[in-house]
Structure formats: structure tokens, C-alpha cells
């Protein structure tokens, strides 16, 4: 009698990820580690499994869900392309990301998947950047460490983008790194 229920249960457990539409994880080694070259800005990233957001997370399974690395890379590529002077090229390698907030599962079983925003959990990002001129000469090169310690004070209450703090941090850095041409 028990085996009659055991086989369907095992089959359901094996097929559950397929039936539920398995969610993507940023640490999947089969995923690309760069955006397609589109315009003057190229963006790639190192292994997301080594990013601080996953390594030091209190809920690694939840931290690696989704396509947030590619989404941040795409935002960086699009915004940098708008600000980069004509003829210049920019190569960016993302080497670390710590998203805003942290998981605090000790708050209770219902909070294990909730990212809690506190002043002590600011967004951070480490990039290697190389900007070259139209003639191929290197104009700027090196590591950039981004962080936004006041991310909660600058937040917009109507913005529902899960990566709004990280995107704003990238935008702020690009305004400093690539100032608008003076008229």
C-alpha cells in the first residue's frame, strides 16, 4: 500500500522543477558572462558565485535567483553608452556585487526570502574599467569601487524596481566618470 503512494510522490519531486518552470540562477555556469557587444560599451562579469551578495548571504539560494547580474550589466551598458563621447570605447568587467539589503532569516520563517533594507547594508560594486579614445589611446583605466552609503535617504517611494538602489549607484558613478560635455 505504501509503495502505491511512494512512486507518484517521487515522480512529482523529480518533475517539480520542470513543471514549475525552473527559475534561472545567476550562478549557472551555462549562462553567458558577458553582454553582446552592442555599441561603444562592452560589459562582462566574473563568476557570480564569488560575488559578495551570494558568498556572504544568509540565504544563498534566494540570493542567486533571477537574472540580476545581467540586468545590472545591461543598465550599465545602456547608461554608459549615452554618456560616452563619440569615438570613445569603454570596457567594463564587474568583479563583485553586493546588492542593497540582506536576508535576515532569524526574524522568522516567513522572512527567510525577504531582503531587509537597513543603513548597514548598502549596495556595493567593484568594476575594472578601461576607456579608450577614437585613436585607441587609453584615457582612463583601473579598478572602481562603488558604494552608496545613503541609499535609503535618497530612495523614491514609488520606485518598485528591485535593483533601483544599485542602478542609481551606477548612474551616480557614470555622472562622475563621464561628465556631460560642456556646451
Structure explained in plain terms:
With 183 residues, the protein is an alpha+beta fold. It contains five helices and six strands; from the N terminus they run H-E-H-H-H-E-E-E-E-E-H. A four-stranded mixed β-sheet has the order 1-2-5-6. A two-stranded antiparallel sheet has the order 3-4. The chain is globular and about 60 Å long. About 7% of the residues have low confidence.
Q: What is the element string, with H for helices and E for strands?
A: HEHHHEEEEEH
Q: Which residues sit in consecutive blocks of at least 5 with pLDDT less than 50? A: 9-21
Radius of gyration: 20 Å
Biggest beta-sheet profile = 4 strands, mixed
pLDDT averaged residue by residue: 86
SS elements, strand count: 6
Query: What shape does the CA trace take?
Result: globular
Q: What is the CA–CA distance across the termini?
A: 82 Å
Strand content: 15-25%
Secondary structure tally, helices: 5
Helix content: 25-40%
Give the structural class: alpha+beta
Strand order of the largest sheet: 1-2-5-6
